[in-house]
Amino acid sequence: MPGGRLTLEDRRLIATWLKDGLGYAEIARRLGRPTSTISREVARNSGHSGYRADEASRVTGERARRRKPHPRAAPVVTNDYGRDPEAVRRFEADFTEMMVATGLPRMMSRVLACLSVSDDGVHTAAELAQRLQVSPASISNAVRYLETQALLKRERTGRREQYVIDEEMPQRVWAESVRANQEWIKIARQGAEVLGTSTPAGVRMDDLSRFHARINEVMLDDRVAVYVGDALTVLAALLHARRSLSVPALAAALGWDGERVSAALRVAEEHPHVAGPVRVNSCGGGYRAVALVERLTEEQMAALES
Known about the structure:
Residues 5-45 form the Transposase IS30-like HTH domain. Helix content is 63%, strand content 9%.
């Protein structure tokens, strides 16, 4: 079959066509194989009398029997917290199957599950390949895909590259989901305009845009709940600093990444009720926490200023 090993019948056809004077490319085309497969087969299995199908099949079989399989290293399973390793393996398998059922490709699901059940959420490509018993190329392909979905990130320590699932992963996934929904809304609205909102196809597109817009409304409402604690922490930091601070300065002081600080500031700005009597003002690339003086009467402000 195309893509599989050559059969005895394939080899007999090769021998016949070689005698007929056909080139490797034409033989490969007729068998549905790469030209390199045919040229390699003839080069490796030709004797003094040329290429003979029965002899080629026998030699290939002997070569395969002599080839010893490489023992595969046992997966590394840590047990630092006294867990049952078998229970952890079963959970990892169940977690993988759940992600596959929701549409994530299997190899990507296996990598994500493997990282998720490790306590530090960090593995190198070599560690993942050993743990999952797959090739480094499979790990590389999976990581590239997971990066596009904001499900992990790369970090370099010296000459080693490692893959990380950190506490910011849910926020990154959320942000990517919001962005993807915005694209759905945009293209569906465009479709409704092109097709005509009074036509069945146009109505369908309009409904699609409204559906994704509603999803984003719900997700944005959820964002407030997710980031409200961060927003209050950022406000406390600004109040304590008593000066304007940039996002990088806040990130360095709080030990967060810039994306988390920016998200918290957006919530504080867009939802002032979160912070009570304090609001965030942006000024010259920095941010400052100021009191909502609108809550005070003129007499109260005068008394405080005296």
